[in-house]
Design goal:
It is globular, with a radius of gyration of 26 Å. The chain is built from 29 helices and 17 strands. It is an alpha/beta fold and 760 residues long. The two termini are 47 Å apart.
Length: 760
C-alpha cells in the first residue's frame, strides 16, 4: 500500500500522502508568497469550488444587508443568524488531494456585523471610561498588555464525538424542554437556546452542502469523504476518520467563523480517538497503516494553516487507579508526526512516573534530533495547582491542557487571560517616579525620587508598589470588561458542548460553567529579579556605584557607561544559577505576585489565577521597556516564562531547575513553565536519554509543572544565521510554541545564540 520515501528530509513517508502534501500546503495560503502568521485567517488557498459559494466581499455585502434584520435581536440570536449566513454561503473544498473538507472564508466575517459592533459599543457606552483610559495607556507603554480574551477555549470533545453535531443539538433541545417544564423561560434563556439551535442547525446544513458537493466529484477520495459527511450530518461518528473530520470541522467553524479559538484537539487526542481506533482495528474497518495515513492528512491541516502560536493538543495522563492513559494510538500519533517532519501542531505530554519508557525515549530522541514541538506537563504539580482553586482530585486528574500549557477543568472551566504584567517595567518606573519617558505620560504611581531613597528597603518597596499598581489596576480593568464577554461574543457553539451550561441555561462565557476564572501573567520575571539584585549589590551593599549615577546610565541607555553596564550584567547574583540570596528574593517576589492574584474574586463569579508565562510579550513588552539595571539595553527582549535572562544561567541546567522549583510552581495554577537548553554532547546515546529523563524526574519530583527543552550548539546556530538556506527545517522552542529558526528576528536569534554559548 505504501512506498516509503523521503519528503525533503529522508524520513519514511506514505506514497499517496507524499503526492498530496504539496497541495494541502496550499489549502489555506500560498506558502511561496509573503505570509503573516499572526493574521493567518485573512488569506486564501487553492482547491475550493468557486461555484459552491461566494467570496469574502460578496459575503460581507450580504452580511451588511442582513444587519438590518438582526441588529435589534438578542445577541445570541443575532450572532447565530450571522454565522448561519456565512455557513450558507461559504465556498467549499472537496479536493482530490485531501481527505478533509475546507471552507474558503475564514477571517471571522460574521463578526463584521456582530462582534465588532458590540465590542465597540461596550467600549464607547458601557465600560468605565477611566479604566478604558488606563487600559489604553497600559497597552501603549508596555507596562501591561490587556484585552478581552476569547482564545483559550476547549469544548467537551468527548460529548461531541459521542453525540455528533445532531446529538448535541438534540441534547440542547431536551434541556430546553426541561427548563420549560420547570417554569417559563426568561427572554435571556430563550435567546440562549435559540442561538444554539440556529448555529448547530447551520453546521448540519453546511455538512449537508459538503456531502452533496462530494457526491458530484469523481476522484478516488470523494466516495470516502461523502460517506463520512453523510454520517456526520445524520449522527455521531462511527470510525476514527469520521471522528477526526468532526474535530476538524468544529475547529474551523469555531475558530474562524464563530470567533472562539480552539486550544486543544480532543480531551487528550489519543484518548478521545482511542475507542474509534480500537473498534476500527478489531472490526477490520481500517488497518493500522490506513489509520496512520488518515492521521497524516489530519495533522497536516494545522501545519498548513500556519498559526504562529501553533495548534495544541495533548497526549497521555493518568487514570484514577494510577495507570497510564498512553495507548497504541499515542505511539502512532507520535510516529506519524515524526515522519511528517512538521513543527505544528504542538504537542503537550502529560508526564508522570507511569509514562512508558519506550514512549518517553521516542519523544526525547525526537527533541535531541531537533523536533521541538513538545512540552512536558508534570501531573503531580499541575493536579495540586488545579485543586488550589477548588477543583476535586478527580477533576484535577482529568484536567485539560490548553493553549501553551495552561490548565483547565474539563468541560467546566472558562479561563479568560487578562493582564500580561510587565515586571521589569515596575523597575523602570521606580527610576522615573512612575513617568513613562517613551509615552511622555505619568503611567505608574509616584513612589518618590530615586535619589531620595535612603536604603535598599526604600528601593525594594517602591518596586513592589509599582508592580502592585499594575496588578490591581489590571484586575479593575478586567472586572470591568469581563462583565460583557458573553454580551459581546455569545458562545453558542461552545456552550452547547458543556452540560453545565445547558443545565444553567447560561452562556459558557457569561457565567454558565462551574469555574468562571481569569488569569494574570507574570512577565519578564527574571529581568525583574536580576535588576533588583543588581541594585541591591552594587548600590546598597558594596556601594560601588551611587544610585544617581546608575539612574543616569539607564536614562542614557548605558551610552558612556559601558564598563558599568558590563559590571551589572556580569553580576553573580542572577536568577537561574542556584545562588541562595538571589533565589530567596526570587522566591519571595514570585510568592508576592501569586498572593496578590490567586483566588481573588473576579467579575464573573470566579477567581483570578496567576501564570508564570510571557507569550510574545518578552519581545513586545521588551521593545517598550527602557534600559534596566541588570545591564539590559532599551528595547531588548525580556526574560520569558520562569526562565533566566538569556545567557545568564551559567551554572548548568541543574542549578537552573533548582532555582525554578524554589519559586513554588504550584503557586501559579494556570501555568508555570521553565525553558531549558542542553548542548548536543550532553544528550548523546542511551546515556543522553537517561540524563534527559533524570532532569524531567527531578523537576517533577520537586513540584515543577511544565518544562520544555531546546538542544542547541551555538556554532550551528551561528552558521544557521549566516546561511539560512541550509537550515530551512531548524526548529526553535519559543515560550509555548515552536517556530522555524529562519522565521525568528535577528534579535531573537541572537538571544538563543547567547544562551547556547552560556551552556558551553
Amino acid at each position: 500500500m505504501y512506498i516509503y520515501k523521503n519528503y525533503e528530509r529522508g524520513i519514511i513517508m506514505f506514497k499517496t500522502f507524499n503526492e498530496d502534501r504539496k497541495f494541502i500546503e496550499k489549502k489555506y495560503h500560498n506558502p511561496d508568497e509573503e505570509f503573516n502568521p499572526y493574521q493567518r485567517m485573512k488569506y486564501h488557498g487553492i482547491g475550493y469550488d468557486e461555484k459552491s459559494g461566494l467570496d469574502d466581499e460578496e459575503i460581507i455585502n450580504g452580511l451588511k444587508k442582513l444587519h438590518g434584520e438582526i441588529k435589534d435581536l438578542p445577541h445570541p440570536i443575532a450572532k447565530a443568524k450571522a454565522v448561519k449566513y456565512v455557513l450558507e454561503n461559504e465556498r467549499l473544498y472537496i479536493n482530490e488531494h485531501d481527505y478533509f473538507v475546507g471552507m474558503y472564508s475564514l477571517n471571522r466575517l460574521a463578526g463584521t456585523v456582530t462582534f465588532d459592533n458590540w465590542n465597540s459599543q461596550v467600549y464607547r457606552n458601557k465600560r468605565n471610561p477611566q479604566l478604558v483610559k488606563i487600559e489604553n495607556v497600559f497597552n501603549e507603554s508596555g507596562a501591561v498588555g490587556i484585552w478581552p480574551d476569547y482564545d483559550h477555549v476547549v469544548p467537551d470533545w468527548n460529548s461531541l464525538v459521542k453525540l455528533g453535531f445532531k446529538g448535541i443539538l438534540e441534547r440542547a433541545a431536551e434541556y430546553k424542554k426541561q427548563h420549560m417544564k420547570n417554569g417559563a423561560l426568561t427572554k435571556e434563556q430563550q435567546a440562549y437556546f435559540e442561538g444554539i439551535e440556529i448555529e448547530y442547525g447551520a453546521i448540519i446544513d453546511v455538512i449537508d452542502r459538503m456531502y452533496k458537493l462530494a457526491i458530484t466529484k469523481k476522484h478516488a477520495k470523494a466516495c470516502k469523504i461523502a460517506a463520512c459527511l453523510k454520517q456526520l450530518r445524520d449522527g455521531a461518528p462511527t470510525n476514527i476518520y469520521e471522528a477526526m473530520q468532526l474535530i476538524y470541522i468544529y475547529f474551523i467553524i469555531s475558530e474562524s467563523i464563530d470567533h472562539y479559538q480552539v486550544r486543544s484537539l480532543g480531551n487528550g487526542l489519543d484518548n478521545t480517538l482511542y475507542k474509534f481506533y480500537k473498534h476500527d482495528l478489531e472490526n477490520g474497518i481500517f488497518t493500522r497503516d490506513e489509520i496512520k495515513e488518515y492521521l497524516a492528512y489530519f495533522l497536516m491541516q494545522w501545519s498548513a494553516i500556519g498559526n504562529y502560536w501553533g495548534q495544541p493538543f495533548y497526549l497521555g495522563g493518568s487514570n484514577l487507579d494510577g495507570s497510564t492513559k498512553i495507548n497504541d494510538l499515542s505511539y502512532d500519533i507520535i510516529d506519524v508526526y515524526d515522519e511528517l517532519g512538521i513543527y505544528n501542531p504542538k504537542i503537550q505530554i502529560k508526564y508522570n512516573k507511569n509514562i512508558p519508557l519506550d514512549f518517553l525515549n521516542k519523544i526525547l530522541d525526537m527533541i535531541r534530533r531537533g523536533q521541538n514541538c513538545f512540552v512536558f506537563c508534570c501531573e503531580p504539580g499541575m493536579i495540586k495547582a488545579v485543586m488550589s482553586y477548588g477543583a476535586t482530585y478527580e477533576e484535577a486528574l482529568d484536567m485539560d491542557i490548553r493553549g501553551c500549557y495552561e490548565t483547565g477543568v474539563r468541560a467546566n472551566e472558562v479561563s479568560d487571560v487578562t493582564g500580561y504584567i510587565n515586571a521589569a517595567k515596575a523597575v523602570e518606573y521606580v527610576f522615573s517616579n512612575g513617568y513613562d519617558k517613551s509615552c511622555h505620560k505619568q503611567i505608574g504611581i509616584k513612589t518618590g525620587e530615586i535619589g531620595d531613597f535612603k536604603n535598599f528597603e526604600d528601593f525594594y518597596r517602591a518596586v513592589l508598589l509599582q508592580w502592585e499598581y499594575f496588578i490591581e489596576q489590571s484586575m479593575e480593568i478586567a472586572n470591568d470588561y469581563e462583565r460583557f464577554l458573553g454580551y459581546v461574543n455569545p458562545s453558542s457553539i461552545y456552550s452547547a458542548t458543556v452540560e453545565t451550561s445547558l443545565k444553567n441555561a447560561v452562556d459558557g462565557y457569561g457565567g454558565g460553567v462551574k469555574f468562571n476564572n481569569s488569569a494574570m501573567l507574570n512577565c519578564g520575571f527574571a529581568s525583574l529579579v536580576d535588576s533588583v539584585m543588581a541594585v541591591k549589590k552594587f548600590v546598597y551593599d558594596t556601594k560601588e556605584v551611587e544610585i544617581g549615577e546608575l539612574k543616569s546610565a539607564v536614562d542614557n541607555n548605558w551610552v558612556g557607561y559601558e564598563k558599568l553596564r558590563l559590571k551589572m550584567r556580569n553580576c553573580a547574583y542572577k536568577y537561574g544559577n542556584g545562588e541562595p540570596e538571589t533565589d530567596l528574593y526570587a522566591q519571595m517576589m514570585a510568592r508576592y505576585f501569586a498572593n496578590k492574584v490567586n483566588n481573588r474574586p473576579n467579575g464573573r463569579g470566579g477567581v483570578y489565577k496567576a501564570i508564570m508565562h510571557s507569550a510574545m510579550q518578552f519581545v513586545w513588552q521588551g521593545e517598550k521597556t527602557l534600559a534596566t539595571p541588570d545591564g539590559r539595553k532599551a528595547g531588548e527582549e525580556l526574560s520569558k516564562n520562569a526562565s533566566p535572562v538569556p545567557g545568564m544561567d551559567r551554572n548548568g541546567v541543574t542549578a537552573l531547575i533548582n532555582s525554578a522549583v524554589k519559586l513554588n510552581p504550584t503557586l501559579y495554577p494556570e501555568s508555570f513553565c521553565v525553558d531549558i537548553m542542553l548542548h548536543p554532547s550532553a544528550v548523546e546515546g542511551s546515556d543522553g536519554l537517561t540524563a534527559m529523563k533524570a532532569l524531567l524526574d527531578v523537576y517533577m519530583e520537586k513540584g515543577g509543572m511544565s518544562i520544555q527543552i531546546n538542544v542547541f550548539n551555538s556554532e550551528v546556530l551561528r552558521d544557521a544565521q549566516k546561511n539560512p538556506d541550509r537550515y530551512k527545517n531548524l526548529q526553535v522552542r519559543v515560550c509555548g510554541w515552536n517556530v522555524l529558526w529562519n522565521n525568528l528576528s535577528r534579535a531573537e536569534q541572537d538571544a538563543y545564540i547567547l544562551r547556547a554559548e552560556a551552556i558551553q
